[in-house]
Amino acid sequence: MSTPASLADPEISRTEPTVAQLFTGFLLLGLIGFGGVLPLARTMVVEQRRWMSGKEFTELLGLCQFLPGGNINNMSVAIGLKFRGPAGALAALLGLIAAPTAIVIGLGILYDHYQDDPHIRHLFAGLAAAAAGLLVAMAVKIALPLRRKPVAIAIALLCFLAIAILRLPLLATMLVLAPISVLASWTLDKGENTP
């Protein structure tokens, strides 16, 4: 079975973004990313602008999820830093947060005035369902590059079991599974590169 073109890693002509392209790319993400920017970030970075491969994006996301702070904020800084150093990191982060910050302040003022309206309550319930759907779609896209790596799948399943089913603390789970994952990946990669 073949992978749809939209899900495959585009390998043709990778481009390195300028500082301005980092700012405008992440500004657009910040403007259109309601309820979850990560799926849109992957689409922009991997499929549309071809700044990184799907594998590179997934590996960078893994690092960013382990660091404190929001995943997309960490991703914007990491991607900006990778291509244009501190100036790129700052441009990407400012692009990501500038418009949403202004919008949230404006909407917060409106919500404060109309929060008792039942229509507004129903609107937020619908938005929560859409956000959950975005997260599921992102999980599928992130998992695709790992489908041929049984160790990565096993660690992902252990992480899901520990956090979602057993309700173990996230930090404790990551402190145990992250080193195991890194060691397993390093060992397997070393074995593949040995003649």
From TrEMBL:
GO molecular function: chromate transmembrane transporter activity
Pfam family, any one: Chromate_transp
Gene Ontology CC annotation, any one: plasma membrane
InterPro entries in alphabetical order: CHR_Transporter, Chromate_transpt
Subcellular locations according to the entry: Cell membrane
Main location, first listed in the record: membrane
Membrane-crossing segments per the record: 20-41, 89-111, 123-144, 151-178
Keyword annotations from UniProtKB, A to Z: Cell membrane, Membrane, Transmembrane, Transmembrane helix
Membrane topology of this protein: Multi-pass membrane protein
Similarity comment: family membership: Belongs to the chromate ion transporter (CHR) (TC 2.A.51) family.
Name this protein carries in UniProt: Chromate transporter
